[in-house]
Predict the 3D structure of the following.
Amino acid sequence: MSTDFKELDYQETPLGAISLRRRAEVRLGGKIVYEVKLDDEFLMSSLFTEAEVQLATLALAELSSFEGTALDVVVGGLGLGYTAVAALADASVGSLVVVEVMAPVIDWHRRGIVPNADALCSDPRTTLLHGDFFAMAAADEGFDPADPDKKSHAILLDIDHSPSHWLNPQNSSAYTVSALAKMAEKLHPGGVFGLWSNDPPEPAFERVMGDAFASAHSHVVTFANPYTRGESANTVYIART
């Protein structure tokens, strides 16, 4: 049972009705929880963010060969901003472009009504870009509108539930060898592609990543689940050019 519930925003989008809710969770001593829903489907909760943070941490840890370089990082999917803020916590990051298809999500951060808004929007390294990440990934240009030929050192993706469970069926084509190979072209040699998944590692997708990149592997990220009083897990896939 929870109390002090407030719907902070509700807007119709081409993908459905998106809402942002804040509530105090009685089972957790009144802890404030932020939740994002798309129609009746939960997209994200501020209660479970360890894997989103590790998506940035694990990917950037792979870039030691670029020591002394100001890293250019792209995040696909803004959500509640945990991956983006974790990337900014790395002092080697020189620029961060966050691509988000839903304008209301960007608006929440600019209005300061989500937990990471100030840390993200006040950092001069950050660009919040309203756009279709998958369309941009499939294009010949890079992710920086001001510099279409610019390559990235890391591309971090957290949009779908998993490589085989999509928010939009059209996203399925983004997890093929040809689409991921196109993504690899947008990275510097030795650059990293990272992907968050809600599901356990999928061997078939690991093989797809291995065909598209020079190397690929997965990490199982565990975290405490106060509702089950046990552990839950997400997956972070990492690939390098």
